[in-house]
Design goal:
Strand content of chain A: 35-45%
Helix content of chain A: 10-25%
Oligomer: homotetramer
Largest interface: A-B, 21 and 20 residues
CATH superfamily of chain A: Hotdog Thioesterase
Structural class of chain A: alpha+beta
Distance between the termini of chain A: 7 Å
Strand order of the largest sheet of chain A: 1-3-4-5-2
Shape of chain A: elongated
Order of helices and strands of chain A: EHHEEEEH
CATH architecture of chain A: Roll
Largest sheet of chain A: 5 strands, antiparallel
Number of domains of chain A: 1
Number of helices of chain A: 3
Mean pLDDT of chain A: 96
Radius of gyration of chain A: 16 Å
């Protein structure tokens, strides 16, 4: 089974806007926090990429907003691998609050070398972790 | 011709991450700043919605990252109407720096009443402004 | 003894700047997160103020930066009451990482009514909690 | 006369909180934006420090909040040198909106070398600019 990680978060006061709901850009902040936990769980940390002279950079982010989050809400985000190609991978992030769907975010990352930022193949040992082999 | 607005911005230091490029969530902050200018130019301000007991809320945001932005970069964002339906509208935001494409963001908004947040028709006077009639 | 609360946090990637350390404004975000936990522990939640028609607003914030925080660092913040007057209270926030001092922040809040935002006496039941009577 | 710079800003929607006013941490973001303009005007850019193998890091930040800022407010920040010592400098930032005082922030920076982050003397050519000689 492809790799996945679930992480819990709580809405901070400063993340809410004038109408009392989480401002849209913060969903990408939450997603990044959960991606950090995903890499920690499956690779021992994102620095595993850096150790190989690599980085992953965002190519695409697609967000579907279903229901608003409010101040102090506790919610869960489940990150799972939805696609892996030679040089890119796509993670899906499902946001839920007490079982209710809040948002879905799909992010495509490209693997690049840390110096030139040119696309590079995803190393076999990372690919096999992502694909759950 | 459908309504459009172009606005210039400069990257703030705190918007950049450890590798020296703008962190992804800030693209949605920039988009929101430009949407504010779009409403100012075409409606006299977003408060025109509130005056009619309405709000627009995000349903979808799709981002394509083309090239990174760095600290202190000046760039332009052109917002234009790409679709209007009975109760929703889609704005496209094109980010460029010195003519070079940086990112494209498409955001779909739903028109709702300010109290119950149920979907409402976009008022005729606003629709005609958006469609450039 | 005056009321106090200790809360643990972890540095998010987007909170770090180009030189790899937490950008200064985020210390006030952390402080606010810990203040929320302080009110939860001692009053059952900040909404206790709102229930009385009151709010607390910042009058002053004084920060001493001792050592930088880096991405993924875990750290603790201890919030404690350092002064209570008729209409204001001061909380001190001590930031430590593995026992090492990171920063000290002192924030003075004024109690105001939620409508007019004019200064109001701190209710006796809240004062006695703050002073640890 | 000591160096000073005035810069205008407008409140972004995402900088406001649930009660409709600018969240406190954003004052330090504004201050940083104005510091960037201060260095641009007086040194040709903050990179002048980096070119000398130096950086300035925050030691202290003291904020007095006088009146709230609201969404879309235009305001001015005047940055001026209030003290220069061998290895540190203090800038004062006065926030006003239509002549009305909004906030005062005093920030002390220490000059450090970019590698080891140990305190270093402020170079004579920079000191004389700061002091307005």
């Amino acid at each position: 089974m492809p790799a996945e990680t679930t992480h819990s978060l709580r809405v901070r006061y400063n993340e809410c806007d004038r109408v009392g709901i989480v401002f849209n850009s913060n969903y990408l902040v939450y997603t990044d926090v959960v991606a950090t936990e995903f890499w920690r769980e499956h690779l021992g940390g994102y620095s595993e990429f850096n150790g190989l002279g690599l980085d992953v950079v965002l190519a695409e982010a697609n967000i579907r907003f279903r229901r608003p989050l409010e101040f102090d809400d506790e919610f869960e985000v489940r990150a799972s691998v939805s696609a892996v190609t030679a040089r890119s991978l796509t993670l899906e992030f499902d946001f839920t609050r007490a079982g209710e769907q809040i948002a879905e975010i799909e992010i495509s990352y490209v693997c690049v070398d840390s110096e030139q930022h040119t696309a590079q193949p995803i190393p076999e040992q990372i690919r096999s972790v992502l694909e759950g082999d």
